[in-house]
Amino acid sequence: MAEPKLLSTEEIAKHNTAKDLWIVVDGQVWDMTEFAPEHPGGIGIILQYAGHDASQSYNELHAPSLLPKTLTTSKLIGTLDTSTISDSWAKPPPQKNPKVQLKNEKPPLDTLISTHDFEAVAEKTLAPKTWAFYSSAATDLVTHKANQSFFDRIWFRPRILRDVRTRDTRARIMGRDIEMPVFVSPAALARLVHPEGEKAIARACHAKGIMQCVSTNASFTIDEIASALPPSSQSSPPLFFQLYVNKNRAQSERLLRTVWDLGIRTIFLTVDSPIAGKREADERVRMEEDQAAPMGQGRPVNDKKGGGLGRITGSFIDAGLCWEDLGWLRRHWKGKVVIKGIMCAEDARRAVEWKVDGIVL
């Protein structure tokens, strides 16, 4: 049997692309070009070591015998000439996803891999008032904590031994086709987080094929948000609209006409906040009084109760709204109606009796 070919680090380093990919493992030089795209952990980690020594990373996860068993002998190119190893070649490659450092500046977006990561970064980088507004809930947070606890009790019930080589996350919600069964819930004043606010969210949702539900208390008018979308989608924008009914019903009627004229066909009627809750964290931090929601009419001011954005911007909401007002809504809105804020089974049944199109718990 011929002796394995001795290869210098200079020669190995030339093979450092996805189309020509060599790595060194325990002194052996392997051609991974064909195997890398099929690697269960993805091609990325192999590319990270292309043209270099991957022994340490490989041995942390794999048995020494795995490569010889997985690849044919033709993929064993030769052995490493250790006399050619230099400090620069032996230096480990930079980590593609460094540990997130939570300081006062936002880390690279691709280092955040879960919603918990986003929340942790937001707490450190948002203005104190913005964080207080978005993270707060009423009084002692009893319901807020209970909701989190109860949501954790909802488990998937997986079935096994099914052919899942082809997967499809597409779904349909309120007559709209979406790429996955989620939508962006309405949240007020998104410009507190980014200058483009809801307009940026709209563009992102369009790009990913999901729906955005725009709040009455958005930082921009619904016209401005819809116009931020590509022209091809503006006749039927990927938008729902969340409605707080104004004490001045004429204001809400005008808003509904505007929403309809933009091609939006589903509204989410919020019913669980006729009176604003006492969101203590929000009240404690004084607000900048130039923050306003152009469609909501509420104007932020600091008063003797504090500086609660949630309380002040919701001051226009009609506390007298009742089931019978669905008749008024139907007269002014011919599209679908979802009731947002159902909190008991009795009201869920009543919503069915009133023939609404959906509910949000």
In terms of structural class, how would the helical and strand content be classed?
Answer: alpha/beta
Helix content: 25-40%
Largest sheet: 6 strands, parallel
Number of helices: 15
Low-confidence stretches: none
Oligomer: single chain
| Average of the residue pLDDT scores | 89
- Spell the H/E element sequence: EHEEEHHHEHHHHEEEHEHEHEHHHEHE
What fraction strand? 5-15%
Q: Span between N and C termini?
A: 72 Å
How many runs of DSSP E, i.e. beta strands?
A: 13
Shape: elongated
Radius of gyration, in angstroms, nearest whole number: 28 Å
Output the strand order for the largest sheet: 8-9-10-11-12-13
Please provide a written account of the structure.
With 361 residues, the chain is an alpha/beta fold. Helices cover 32% and strands 14% of the residues. It contains 15 helices and 13 strands. Strands 8-9-10-11-12-13 form a 6-stranded parallel β-sheet, covered by helices on one side. Strands 1-5-4-3-2 form a 5-stranded mixed β-sheet. A two-stranded antiparallel ribbon has the order 6-7. Helix 11 links the parallel strand 10 and strand 11 (266-270). The longest helix is centred in the last third of the chain and has 13 residues, at 249-261. The N and C termini lie far apart (72 Å).
